[in-house]
Write a structure and sequence with these properties.
Blueprint (H helix, E strand, L loop, with lengths): L2 H23 L3 H4 L5 E6 L4 E9 L2 E11 L4 E8 L6 E7 L5 H15 L3 H15 L1 H15 L9 H18 L5 H4 L5 E8 L2 E12 L3 E17 L5 E4 L2 E6 L2 E6 L5 E8 L2 E9 L4 E5 L7 E16 L3 E6 L13 E2 L4 H16 L4 H14 L2 H13 L9 H19 L1
Antiparallel strand pairs: 1-2, 1-5, 2-3, 3-4, 5-15, 6-7, 6-16, 7-8, 7-17, 8-15, 9-10, 10-11, 11-14, 12-13, 12-15
Helix pairs in contact: 1-6, 5-6, 8-9, 9-10, 9-11, 10-11
């Protein structure tokens, strides 16, 4: 038997086994910290899947707490394959929903990450070194293969050498994930990340825990969660996320029983569509008067939840170091990448209302919010100042308008410095 063929087969076989083993045990180090926790996976198409994460190298399984009955079967889990990770918008772990056991697990993980022992520090430095030196190792591998392929005894053929080179790259790639010296210095620090969500770029402040080649992981983010509640004479009272909505004839009352402020955004009751744009503090109520004979009333609002978040690096990046978190900026509006038809419709409607009644403080504040999304800071400031002239007409007496005006002033000052 030809010795060159035998050596080639043995080397290929050994390299394939090693590569397969490394691939089978390698899991994304950001996703690994959520393994075993109940999480919510938000997809780019708006779907939200939730369950206890069971992570493998080829994907994840989300195990439902309760079985889901379909027309033809009963579902107990959802499988998301690694090739589908590109469709993920974000993964959330709500800290206020953790069991005592999982809270302890999370605390131990944070202690190991932010106060690592000697072996953990050496392991991280070794992994970073391997990532940095991967190109050099690839070159060394090619050199070794060239030496083995001696002119007098062709132990490895041209085709085999090409295959082995590719195998070597795969092995090296699975030893560690991408090393970024710029991100490395921010691990354990509070940072600001920018996340593209649909047509909007939003900023979030959190503690930067980890990164991989595909994901960023942040902790203790105060995340505004969108909700919509509908009440009617048949169902006059509902409570959602500690926000109580009560309908009594032509009177609508909203009560915030949440531990954090609530942003009341919009109200829709038939043809009556109102931009509220007011902040309701914990324990505070707001009363609205509707048209007589009001039927179904729909209220849109945001509540603040403390979450740990994993976001794909494909649409998120670390932008700033943040020395502290300003609670007044819980509900900062993102910047629109594209002016949508819905935003244009709302803008025209608000301008029409203000032309009819310049003292309409709610419309002035709401219009300023849309202009902030478009980056029209000067005009936004004018409308906010006008809204504050009639702050007695606002449900929160101008608190939300003052928060937005402070942000506008900061942006204008930053433009002057730049």
């Amino acid at each position: 038997m030809d010795i060159s063929l035998l050596v080639t087969i043995l080397v290929i076989f050994a390299a394939a086994l090693l590569g397969s083993y490394l691939r089978s045990i390698q899991r994304d180090r950001c996703l690994k910290s959520f393994d075993g926790f109940h999480v919510f996976v938000e997809m780019k198409d708006g779907r939200v899947i939730w369950g206890t994460m069971s992570l493998e190298s080829t994907g994840m399984e989300l195990l439902y707490r309760d079985s889901v009955h379909d027309d033809q079967h009963i579902e107990t889990s959802y499988i998301l394959y690694r090739d589908e990770y590109g469709n993920i918008q974000a993964i959330y772990r709500y800290t206020d929903q953790l069991t005592p056991e999982n809270t302890e697990r999370r605390n131990r993980d944070l202690e190991r990450s932010f106060h690592p022992g000697l072996f953990r520090r050496l392991g991280r430095k070794s992994r970073d070194f391997i990532n940095t030196a991967s190109d050099s190792v690839n070159e060394a591998l090619n050199l070794v293969l060239g030496r083995v392929r001696a002119p007098t005894v062709p132990v490895i053929t041209d085709t085999s050498q090409k295959y082995l080179t590719q195998v070597g790259k795969n092995i090296i790639g699975y030893v560690g994930t991408r090393y970024d010296p710029l991100l490395e210095r921010y691990v354990g620090s509070r940072v600001v990340i920018e996340v593209v969500e649909g047509d909007t770029v939003n900023e979030y402040v959190g503690v930067f825990k980890e990164y991989s080649s595909d994901f960023l992981e942040l902790l203790d983010i105060f995340h505004p969660e969108q909700h919509t509640v509908a009440v009617s004479p048949e169902e006059p009272e509902k409570i959602q996320s500690d926000v109580e909505v009560r309908l009594d004839g032509a009177h609508l009352t909203l009560s915030n029983h949440h531990a954090q402020p609530v942003l009341l955004e919009r109200l829709v009751c038939g043809e009556d569509e109102r931009e509220l744009n007011v902040v309701l503090d914990p324990g505070q109520d707001a009363a609205l008067t509707l048209e007589e004979g009001a039927e179904a009333v729909q209220v849109e609002f945001k509540v603040v939840r403390s979450v740990d978040m994993i976001v794909p690096r494909a649409h998120a990046l670390v932008r700033h170091r943040a020395e502290r978190h300003d609670p007044e900026r819980f509900f900062d509006i993102g910047v629109l990448l594209r002016w949508t038809s819905e935003a244009a419709r709302r803008e025209q409607r608000l301008r029409r209302l203000l032309a009819q009644d310049p003292t309409d403080a709610a419309s002035a504040s709401a219009l300023a919010g849309l202009l902030i999304q478009r980056g029209e800071w000067e005009e936004a400031r004018r409308w906010l100042e006008q809204a504050l002239m009639y702050s007695d007409k606002l449900l929160d007496h101008g608190k939300r308008a003052r928060q937005q005006l402070q942000r506008v002033e900061n942006e204008l000052q930053a433009m002057k410095r730049g």
